[in-house]
Amino acid sequence: RRLSPYDAGRVTRRDMLRYLGAAGLAGITGIGLAGGSRAGNSRAVTKDVEILLTARPGQARLLPGTPTQVLRFDASVVRGDPAAVAPSPGGYLGPTLRLKKGQRVRIRFDNRLTEPSIVHWHGLHLPDEMDGHPRFAVAGGGSYHYEFTVNDRAGTYWYHPHPHGRTGPQIYYGLAGLLLISDDEERTLGLPQDEQDIALVIQDRTFGADNQLRTLGRGMMMERMMGFLGKDILVNGQPGYTLTVSPRAYRLRLLNASNARIYKLAWSDGTPLHVIATDGGLLTRPAERPYAMLAPGERVELWVDFSRYADGGELALKSLPFEGGMAMRGMMGGGMMRGMMGRGGMMDGMMGDTMSRMNEGMMGGPANGRELDLLTVRIARGRPAKSEPPARLARVPPAGSGDARNAGNPRTFRLAMGMMEWTLNGRTFEMNAAAADERVALGATEVWELANEASMGMMGMMAHPMHIHGVQFRVVGREVLPGLREAYATVREGFVDEGWKDTVLVMPGERVRLMLRFEDYKGLFPYHCHNLEHADLGMMRNYRVV
Ligand code: C2O
Ligand code: CU
Ligand code: CU
Hints:
Blueprint: H1 13-25, E1 49-60, E2 68-79, E3 85-86, E4 96-100, E5 104-111, E6 119-122, E7 143-149, E8 155-161, H2 167-172, E9 177-182, H3 184-187, E10 197-207, E11 213-214, H4 221-226, E12 232-235, E13 238-239, E14 242-245, E15 249-256, E16 263-267, E17 273-278, E18 281-289, E19 292-294, E20 299-305, E21 313-319, H5 327-332, H6 334-341, H7 346-351, H8 353-363, E22 372-379, E23 411-418, E24 421-424, E25 438-440, E26 445-451, E27 464-468, E28 474-480, H9 485-488, E29 503-506, E30 510-517, E31 523-529, H10 532-536, E32 540-545
Parallel strand pairs: 1-5, 4-9, 10-15, 14-22, 23-26, 25-32
Antiparallel strand pairs: 1-2, 3-4, 5-7, 6-8, 8-9, 10-11, 10-12, 12-13, 15-20, 16-19, 16-21, 17-18, 17-20, 21-22, 23-24, 26-30, 27-29, 27-31, 28-30, 31-32
This protein binds CU-O-CU linkage and copper (II) ion (2 copies).
């Protein structure tokens, strides 16, 4: 069977030329494409929608007292279904875009920042001109016109800026929003919906005493290399987030929109997680896990029944400690390193915050043996409506590697640090690579191997959440260096590799094999680390579909 996440609502080459032309010329106020957008497909008629999306400096009330200066997205529906734009949860994140598979979408992006920007639709399978590659960044005051058909399965996607070198700061100051896609298949599954379908965007931030966002210290090269780790957790743009639920089943869609922090998600009462979806939509059946790893850019959806708390109660969603592993451990022993570098350790006293942050970064996440409370779930008293996790979800083809062209000889990508910059296969990003770094044939299925075996040379290794634009892929293998098995055991059970992915966490010492199929669109697409500081420091390359 063909391994494809885009099984319906296919766009022909003629369609593509037609709307690429229209995107540049017609603009948001022009005449839309006539009628339904799915010629040749007689299923559900989905109406076109036109959206105006603006990025601008603004303020948000995140803490009591002085408002916080932020960058914000505002969006409105210019034509079509008004439900396509839902207000920002909490005022800090961008509005939520609700689109349907097969729908034709036109979006005008107005950049009202004082610096270049461009919007990327993370996880969507689109022509390269619509994907928000950094080379399409428009200066402050400029606009970019998008027009595309939604090809992707129902699921939790997101949008964010993607200008080269400035993606980290722009997302950090508030430019990120959810993009939820629904489809016909999903509607037949009886999953929790409406008030029982909740999206939760997790971010870490640091606030100063003046309520303003603090970012990487100037000249903090070490921090810049590790990636930003904030002191406070925001969920849907709010610190100390509490979700009030009734005693029944819920669908919780989690997005890690942090710059660099990796979470190891678990319920505080030890209940296992029932994962129903990953980046590219629903799984075949729920996957049970003691905890789930969620790296920047990744999404995971949980099914959870709160009916056993009918008498009211509280539950927390936590991030558990885990080890990223470090090359230096071999020399000095993990315990000793932790003693020296952990919070309150010897080096911490000597070097302060930078060193303990550096330690957190190297350990890959919320390490230092510390747990983080991400949010509190407060269960309201009421008559319990008990249910079982759904036995069956969507159709997902198995991820064999039988039909991959280069299965025996995968393309290998080395994740590493060179000359104080992050590199992929030995060099940093070249935005306008006339010759793309990698060439793949349209229609080909390939195996790519991401090797994280020496990412910081003598200094150790870091985890890298690797994201590939333009496709949804499958994870077909993972292996780790023998010396790091112990550290790896603290995260291994938290990978959910059963479904479609666009971002995959590659732990220190790990090699991860992916199977990708390059369908529908020729063109130049980036792939990069979604630790935003790493990406901004050049840990990005292009591939060209020819
Ligand atoms: Cu979420 Cu290239 O990005
Ligand atoms: Cu992306
Ligand atoms: Cu990285």
